[in-house]
Amino acid sequence: MFKKISTIILLSVFVQFSFAQRNQGFKLTILDTQNKVDDKQKTKITEAFNVVYPEFARADGYRTKRDVTLEISDVLPESMTAQAGKIVVNSNWLLKNSSKFEKELRVKFAKNWVSSDTIKKKGYQLVFISKDPNLDQNVKKNLIDTYFKVYPKLVKTYNKNSTKEVLFVVDTAYKAVAEASGGRILFSAGYMKAHPTDIDVVTHETMHIVQGYGYSAGPVWLTEGIADYVRYKFGVDNIGSKWSLPNYNEKQNYTNSYRITARFFVWLEKNIKPGLISTLDAQLRAHQYNEQSWITLTDKTLPELWAAYGKNPAVDLTYSGKEIKNDNKAKL
Length: 332
Ligand SMILES: [Zn+2]
Description:
The chain is of the alpha/beta class and 332 residues long. It contains 12 helices and 12 strands.
């Protein structure tokens, strides 16, 4: 049967091509080999698809298939099935329930998720989608709590125009640690399982939303250094996750990014200019940052500042409310 269906699909692609429409980079091709639905219904189906699929794709991650086929079937035992790239609709159900198509499509796509929660607090919203049936409920709670605890502070401190509606997706197919794009943060289910205490991934990633620098505003090391500086400053449990800023050594450079750069920034704030990082962050957002910014703000070039740091890198570090003396003499 499958062989027969796929042959029909191949043949009908050409016939149905006129119903293929592009919307926000998504393309729907309706396969209706037995002409069960008329053009008006196909237009309605396409409209509903254009509403629902981008929402689904946003939660599904950037790997979502952008070319989607919708097959009208008279053998499907249920109303419809919906996955990335492939929707199958029961023709009998559709003819009787065309007004319910959009709602049903949304329900079927959400079936790919284990859970979807919408939480609102004091003007901030978080939609939390889990695709991991084994997600530890404590980890879920901690991720949500950290968002509501930290994100409003970051918005208030750095960028009041940041979105107040954020989407978290815990995805089993995503293999890195986490990433932010638009108002969405993708978490690796595998990483969170292996590192359940690393809850301040939320702090680092939500800072990327607040940063919102857009393209080519500044170097990546600076963006990531600021995000880890903010994790250091606003993190809720850096001690619990054993996250710390590594001591200085001569092999380092400020371009090493992340925690190495973040420690340099802590030192700059304490020894050169309080508020420097906040100013640089604002400049990056306004696309006004360049290498001259360091000279204007500190009277020194960036390499001069790094050299000064290297000469006397000691700095007291405070993690999540507890003080650890760091005299930079500890062996790495
Ligand atoms: Zn980052």
